Amino acid sequence: MKKLVFTFLITLFVTNISAQTIFGKWENRDEETGKVDSVIEVFEKDGKAYAKIVEITDQNRQDAVCDKCIGKNKDQKILGMNILTGLQKDGEEWSGGKILDPKNGKKYKCYIQLVDADKLKIRGYIGFSLLGRTAYWFRKK
């Protein structure tokens, strides 16, 4: 019985810790409809945070390309595209990187912050963070 209780507590502890991270799969929801339009996977590489689009829910956009992007992303498929690059942990947030908006092809400075275990705040901006836009991603269940 003690082993069962101990195993349960360890499992609960590990689950709680893993839920307190920015890493994993997140749903991006349309601001007007609230429907999930894509799934983004946030991952760590060399101590920095990155993210790529791993799912597009609209079946008609599976082969969509970033025609408004410039540089290496020009006319590349949006599905599988890295949209978040090089964020470093700074206290409670990750900052110092860039985010790409495939809808308009523009890159912005950004920071991300875990609001709670299942909600991630993304702030993209030009210049300084007061001039920007905030979006929220929700952990994929």
Automatic annotation (TrEMBL):
Domain DUF2147: 24-139
Pfam families (UniProt xref): DUF2147 (PF09917)
Transmembrane spans: none
Signal peptide per UniProt: 1-19
Alphabetized InterPro entries for the sequence: DUF2147
UniProt keyword terms in alphabetical order: Signal
Name used for this protein in its record: Uncharacterized protein DUF2147
